[in-house]
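Example (one chain per record):
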Amino acid sequence: MIQVTSLIGTMQSVEDEPRMPVVDPATAEQIGTVPVGSADDVDRAVAIASEAFPVWSGASVHDRAAVLHGMADAIDANRDELASLESRDQGKPLSLARDLEIPRAAANLRFFADAIRQEKGDFFDLGTQGINYTLRRPRGVAGCISPWNLPLYLFTWKIAPALATGNTVVAKPSEVTPLSAHRFSELAAEAGMPPGVLNVVQGRGDTVGARIVEHPNVPTITFTGGTSTGEWIARTAAPMFKRLSLELGGKNPIIVCEDADLEAAMPTIVRACFQNQGEICTCGSRILVHRERIKAFMARFLECVSALKVGDPLDEETDLGPLVSADHRDKVEAAVARAVAEGGTLACGGGRPAVLPDRVRNGYFLEPTVLMGLDQSCATNQEELFGPVVTVQGFDTHGEAVTRANATDYGLACSIWTRNLDRAHRMAEKIESGMIWVNAWMLRDLRTPFGGMKHSGVGREGGADALRFFTEPRSITIAHSGS
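Predicted structure:
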């Protein structure tokens, strides 16, 4: 049984405090406990982070980068352990955690460690009057609140640029998936992270998360999660003039044009819909197919989806593990039932797997589900489900496809499948999404901005955008003598 604790200056002891169970969604068995957490925990963490800020912000970029590289090395050295924790905690296939997500968690730290050493300010020659230059300085204590779907991957995605730029951090991982952040906290301390620079407060969102947002000495908040929570954060932080980065929900379209290479595209389209059980903010949940190709598309798509293996996440052959919790599976199941009531037709899936290995027979599994016949305005095509559920609609013109793609409150991501580059450029310019892939999905370079528009969020993460977000510019003008 793993006893999760917080890192508040130093790793906290397991005391007589209210705790919650940590459950393996594949087996429905308890594998640990996590503190409920309190506002007092956050207050202590912010005080300690504030005390550590002058020394950390005054350290050279090379010294800060060395610490981040040390943490990345620690992740690499413990990759198998962290991947196992991630799989048991979240339900994702072990192979996905080991081969993609844990290496990416280390890559996040290395990227920003290297990026900060290349960062430079602006310089302007004012002629005979003088010169102007800009400095960027850290903002103070950063509040970093990360979600349950990609736990360590997105945890380091937030803390890495904050730490690299000289901020101290009070971070809160999801209480649903706290294990990898707990182990990372131990590794960070062992790797040389100075006490108080990184604080990880475990606990509930409505206590720990809320206090981080409300705390007057946390001027910067980065959050990934649901849109309703993002709305609350925005309302709460606005009167305090906090800087916010909110990466929220999505209802992402996949547009398949009449000239798409279906055979080449299909593996990526299937992955875009169902990787990590569809519990990724950029997963496609609405497939729009040109009517000339919809019959051929559906035949091949359903063949590929039916071949996906749902089962024990520890099995190397598993494609989809369980959903993250019983409550979440119930929510997604209810959404599928509502879709059928709205007039949708189940092309495949829609229920719980009939056969599962004995070890995971009580887990929170759901079949990959494909729905057809639904109107664009129905709830199923408007609301984020965050599970292995996708709808398919036909379109006649590219203009209609763009209109349908934009016909939600969200605007996070989109992928377009076509061999016509001119068409791809024209459609991409008109689609209201923060990220658009052409003949690809989740092809990422960490230098590029990540984020959405409309109800999908505020601000951008990644590259220079992240470094600017966590710093404050200072414009300094020096007059020439005698001017």
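Caption: The chain has a mean pLDDT of 98.
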